[in-house]
Amino acid sequence: MNALSASKIAHYVSKLENTWMISSAMVVEGLSWWQSWICVWFGYFVAAIFLCLSARIGAVYHISFPVGIRASFGVWGSMWPIFNRVAMACIWYGVQSWIGVFPPSGSLCIKSAIFSPSNPITRQQLVSFSLLGPFTVQADSDPLLTNDTPYKGVMSSIANFATLIVNSLDFSRVARKPKDALYSQLFTIPISFAVTSFIGIIVSSSSGVLYEKPVWNPLDLLGRFLDGASKGERFGVFIISTAFALAQLGTNISANSISAGTDMAALFPRFLSIRRGGYICAAVGFAMCPWHLLSTSNSFTTYLSAYSVFLSSIAGPMICDYYVVRKGYIKVNELYSSRKCSPYYYTFGFSWHAYASYVSGILINIVGFIGAIDIAVPVGATYLYNLNFFCGFVVSFTMYYTLTRIWPIPATSKTWNEIDADVANLSVAYNQGSIPASSIDEESQSRTSSSAAYDEPDSAAKGGKGHVDVRGARVNYLTQ
């Protein structure tokens, strides 16, 4: 195991405390302990597969999510998917910061003239929340949704990783080779999250025996321990609470603040850096009052299940574009170009193929979402919404493939072609040999002579064996 693989494993292990709440919420919503655990195993294994699919894009071409999404949505059309990711990171920043302080329970809530009676937050909790935020400027995380049937439990686990499925490129882009971003995630995610979930399931089920009904939030459970507690018990609660706070701090840094800062810097590169984006994320996370979202095990999950619909409809076109339509072929230099002759400029910088697919993935779930907020809808729509991530992903994936088959897009390959090449018959930079002219779609050659003049003069080769000098169609492979 190399250092990068070990780092990826540590990255996911550091975020395991979130899974406690997901699995225990399943128990509260009616699943048995073994049903909840099976849901976690299966759900996180499926999530790991999706995550590895998107992570490979960054691992091969070493590009982040704001850059990689331009291939499918367009150089300007990528702004909306990036904004979606920023919004989710800000929300999760607030939620994770709130979990990092002591959450409210009915017996602990102090009604104050400073706070509205509808706000279940005390002065002490507000101060703690404010102090935790500045330490976590950099971000992403995961959505949780609770349900009362096994297949909904599976969706809750997948939705918990919906944000990371979309922007896993931000982390995999530093991989030395694609394999580094594969096995370290494919097996670590389901195994490690299942172990933590099992602890949450046992504790939540046991709390139902002690307190008549299960307690889904571990920190609420700690609050119960303080009732009539001795000095030793209070000290134990302090140690456990401190551990939770540190765990949430690490989760916010690795999962929310970094992602939000990176994506905001991509949206407004002239005005925002990753650090400034992290500060904005912290401010938004505070303003959205996360204590309301965590007031019950159901209020938060309804919203998150809805947002996984948006994220799955982004992941569908992105993964279809890379694996099926382009077959791994990306012109990296053109991803940074807003010239009209760029193959990723599409129509005014927007890919209507991707946006039509995106809307289709949302529409298949919209009626079911209305039903989730207690409005009567047909039963069939509810069944579809119970599988919202799958429905959104499959519909948007299929629609994108269909549209690109009917109306082809430029810069595609007829065979699997994960290389950084500009023209046919090119000795490539990644030691893959030559590309046969027949393997690159004619559409990918539809660049004007003026566009070739803007190409970078050379492209570094992997392995230090030289570089490829690309100027239009002239190629010189220089060896040391």
TrEMBL record:
Keywords: Membrane, Transmembrane, Transmembrane helix. It is a multi-pass membrane protein. Pfam families: Transp_cyt_pur (PF02133). Coiled coil: none annotated. It comes from the Eukaryota. The chain crosses the membrane at residues 33-53, 181-203, 235-255, 276-294, 300-324, 344-377, 383-403. GO terms for molecular function: nucleobase transmembrane transporter activity. Gene3D superfamilies: Hydantoin permease. One of its GO terms (cellular component) is plasma membrane. It is found in: Membrane. Residues 437-467 are annotated as: Disordered. InterPro entries: Pur-cyt_permease, Uracil/uridine/allantoin_perm. Belongs to the purine-cytosine permease (2.A.39) family. This is Uracil permease. It comes from Ajellomyces capsulatus (strain H143) (Darling's disease fungus).
